[in-house]
Amino acid sequence: MANPAVSKAPTRNRNQFVRTRVSFAESVAAVVCVLLMAAIGVAIFIKGKYFDPARFMLKNEALKSTVADIEGKSGTIRGDAAQPRRVVKTDAVTAPVAAETQPAAEEGYESTAPAVAKSVKEREPLEIKVDGLRPMGDTEFYNADNLYEKIDGRAPAYLNFNFQQLRCRSFAVAGATGSFVDVYEYRFDTPVNAFGMFALERDPNGKLLAFAPDGYAGEQGFFFRQGACYVQVIASDQNAKTIALTGVIAENRAKNLPADDTGLEARRRLPATGLDPASVQFVAGNALGQESLKNVFQGRYDFDGAKLPFFVMVATPAEAAAAWTSLREFSGKFGGKVTALPDVNGARLFQAEGFGTWKIIYQRGGEIGGVFDADDAGKARQFVEQYLQRKVP
Amino acid sequence: MKPEPKSQPGEGINRREFLLRAGATGALIAGAAAGGYALWQPKHFVPGFEVEKGLQLPSFAIEPSKILPSLAIARGSDHNKTIRAAIGALGGMGRFVRKGDVVVLKPNVAFDRPPALAATTHPEALRAVAKLVLEAGAAKVLVADNPINSPAGCFLKSGLQQVADELNLDLLYPAANSFAPIEIEGEVLKLWTFFHEPFKRATKVIGVAPCKDHNLCHASMTMKNWYGLLGGRRNQLHQHIHSIVSDFALMMKPTLVVLDGINVLMKNGPTGGRLSDVKPMGTVVAGTDMVAVDAYGYTYLLERDLSELTYVHKAHDRGLGNKNWQETHFKEVQT
């Protein structure tokens, strides 16, 4: 037990503060604070359990003051559309298709698009001066966040290829009421991704273009990849004049966009003769089930009546050699017989059979490629040998 | 009873004071709980915590007939003739529209694409339906959609504005005050901003939709067409696309739907862009059951396996329509 005499001794020269009473108001305030914190915690917990898509519902009224700063759409929040209106007859060509679209600076946007930051920041309008065409409105700009405002449910397909920016503009055809040409320039982070999206939508029956590395003309438009851009120039109809002007715009865009085939070296090595253009594919990784085969381009060839899938990968000589060895070992382990073939023009080759189909695989320097899944081993070997001897242009 | 002396500093508290404090604390807890309960909104709807109730659309459907078919399939290449044949097979537009009706026509004008690309309702399809409605004696025909892109551009380039002008139809563009929250007990759609202006006066509603491929939900047909009436950042709903499309069968009870399958966007939808994406299928399907119409469209116009079209099955399972269109009363006609 404590000695009272000892405990009281230090109070001689100093008043010890001993708080023995808490006021009622203080107690109430403390209790309220504690309860409020608990209530907030419970409220957050309960609220977080519900999925409510309407929580982020756009309130158009709240955005009125920002009309000028909204890029892209602005269609449903236009200053000139305060009231629903009955549309009166207008000149079909001169109607303000996209006049309300205001290019606007968007701070920080470039942080998500380092490869194309310069052009995104510049927000350069599509200025195309062609006799017989006049702009129907301003250039529209869309980025990854609002691409859906232009192409809605199609947007995810583009976003899968690291889409960066769309700029588009419409042009009326002079003297042809109702005829117009739409220009869409989809910019991606790399030429390879631009090619990927282009290839995904390719028309198998399109006619190849002379003015773009990957492109074709459809019945009502031109579609091509130039650098990191996938360009679509679409006519409103098949009027000869409109189609001709569409072609002029397409050539104009191909000339004005910077050429860049970075990452597409293997694509360039696919020979043109016999190639089904619609079959060209880019395989980013794990081609033919091999971890070492990446950034591969492949296409299907019609060779002397046989359908031959053919691939090419360009890498360092060491990587190509490793991939060749790996594929050879894999073919021997999981397929049938693997046979070494005589070298052709500095390339080493092997032939492998597996489950009734054939592979002829070569490696020369930093290039590895070959025919796979071929039904006819002789034609597959003949094709590869001709390719290596540069007999297949 | 002798009152207990008040406790002094350093003496702790006496029993009375303890009871008073405990009582006050208990009352506070009970008050806070009662206040919290009174303020609690189970639906937690709109930022701002205000209580908001959405409107509910009336049903625009007509009484089902025991004699006339509910689904018609017409084949032909001319929009006017084929649509007339389809609706004729259902008993004629007079079955659906009466003199004096105010009729809303809902096309799909989602994009500013030319008609040939089949990404939007074809102007000749709208023209054919509108003419039939006018011939049936409608007092007013409203054409309305909420394209996420510029409405002016979409209606102009799709050719629908020209049809509206020529037939003197009222073309309604969405404006800020055209919207109101709609409330349904959908799977995903509970309360959402809705392009309500056209429906304030409407007595009948007819959907006129193209049949097309869709990147996210496989197909855009008559049910998906109502998506164009939603406002706000509706792209969020893409995360639950099949649920939301099936919810449209609950949200909207139209008088009639017309599925234009004369030219079908078979791939690269919903925007398309190439004529090679479009295939002439020469068919128009009209009916009162959207689920049945879409089930037919997916199988025979898009030529795909219906088992993969989740939203049709969801709507069917919820009793919002019949995916087994063969079980309905249908009629096929050739123009």
How does this model look, in words?
The complex is a heterodimer of chains A (393) and B (335). Chain A is built from eleven helices and 15 strands. Chain A is of the alpha+beta class and 393 residues long. In chain A, strand 5 and strand 6 form a beta hairpin. The N and C termini of chain A lie far apart (106 Å). Residues 1-7 and 63-121 of chain A have low confidence and may be disordered. Chain B is of the alpha/beta class. Helices cover 28% and strands 20% of the residues of chain B. Chain B is built from eight helices and eleven strands. In chain B, the strands form two sheets. In chain B, strands 1, 2, 3, 4, 7, 8, 9, 10 and 11 form a nine-stranded mixed β-sheet that branches. In chain B, helix 2 (79-89) packs across helix 3 (123-135), helix 3 (123-135) packs parallel to helix 5 (160-167) and helix 6 crosses helix 8 (310-317). The model of chain B has no long low-confidence stretch (mean pLDDT 91).
Short key terms for the protein model shown above:
heterodimer; A: 8-stranded antiparallel beta sheet; 7-stranded antiparallel beta sheet; 15 strands; flat; disordered N terminus; B: alpha/beta; 9-stranded mixed beta sheet; 8 helices; 11 strands
Please outline what is shown here.
The complex is a heterodimer of chains A (393) and B (335). By secondary structure, chain A is α+β, with helices and mostly antiparallel strands. Chain A has 11 helices and 15 strands.
